[in-house]
Fold:
Amino acid sequence: MNIVILAAGQGKRMHSNLPKVLHPLAGKALVSHVIDTARSLSPRSLCIVYGHGGDAVRSALAAPDLSWALQEPQLGTGHAVRQALPCLDGQGTTLVLYGDVPLIRAETLHRLVHAAADGLAVLTVELADPQGYGRIVRNAAGQVVRIVEQKDASADEKKIREINTGIMAMPTARLGEWLGRLSSDNAQNEYYLTDVVGMAVEAGLPVRTASPEHEWEVLGVNSKVQLAELERIAQRTGAERLMEQGVRLADPARIDVRGELRCGRDVFIDVNCVFEGEVVLDEAVEVGPNCVLKNARIGAGTRLAAFTHIEDAVVGADGMIGPFARLRPGTELAEDVHVGNFVEIKKSTIAAHSKANHLAYIGDATIGSRVNVGAGTITCNYDGANKHRTIIEDDAFIGSDTQLVAPVTVGRGATLGAGTTLTKDAPPDSLTISRARQTSITGWKRPVKAGR
Ligand code: UD1
Ligand code: CA
Structure:
């Protein structure tokens, strides 16, 4: 089988510099949804017809299994498929998809291709309001005769409610001849792909129709309003899939997955969470409201409290993170690590049972097990030119409001007194403190305002 994806249209109504088919839906370009679905059918050739925003489209999608056909200028859907002919394997079926119809399901396409086994098949739906679409014209026996475009249709034909979704499967061997015979003698002066339907009928080939299970599979994106509508549909179906796998969602209407979210058993996700890239939540993870997770793995039993932000990080099992915690790229937490409010961690590893519960910046650090990082602790990792590492060994206790001026090491079991500015290594099992001695001046009087 060959698959041709039409993606040359301009998308004027998007009012955007980004080519229409590159607009993201559920975190992935519109046309990438179509490409991924197409790939799942294992076609022999997969060809994208592109035009508007050409180079941007090609470089954004570049992959070894894609071939490219430039359509310039754009003279209609039939003209578009003709540009793809050199990419096609001469045998079997050619399936035509639209790059701006992203939610079509593989199962539907399987049925369409099956219906085209000995002829041509068109994916159609009946719409309450068929305005604007090509109509499926049938004879008295109910057989498809041809497709007529809205602008060419007679008053009677305009009453037909069965429409052409644009998705079609046809015998590749006939395609070259049919497309060569197309004429642009119609209301739009375009070469209509839909005219091949009449040609197939003329040739005595069976022309069948198939329909998608869900109407949303064939919705196209022409505007930002439609893009938002499809985003909601994609999110809703994604949320349903998660719930079917056993995930408990506080509200399936208030989760956004812009990438891939994989969950173990008994995961709970509260409202307004956003998942981007690849996120894995192991068994019994609980995600509080308003969390954002991007490319992250969260270990079993860990609880993320509200407003936690995690990117390119790994959190071990049985942890407690947040509320208002920020784990930046390169953070790796082992099991039973507690990270509290207003704690930022970057490019650091923290071993098991350690805690940083309040107000801290931990950057470029290696922290051992059972370490307690006090409130207000800062690793001064940056000297204005270079980044340096801080090492805190097992069982250390870092007093509140401490600055660790890297590179510096806190030895195993060491204690740093509150307010310490650590500029040299702290030896193990000792108290290190850098603080002016406290004195009190008795009988000292506060100054008073002059002239009174
Ligand atoms: C087309 C169908 C119509 C169907 C409708 C469904 C034809 C003649 N008409 O109409 O029967 O009901 O889709 O939405 O096929 N494209 C190109 N190059 C072109 C023209 C279009 O790549 O020269 C691409 C567009 O980017 C788009 C798709 O083909 O992805 C359909 O184009 P569009 O202009 O939306 O087709 P319609 O006129 O709406
Ligand atoms: Ca259209």
Observations:
- The helical segments are 30-39, 54-61, 77-84, 106-115, 172-180, 195-202, 224-244.
- DSSP finds seven helices and 35 strands in the chain.
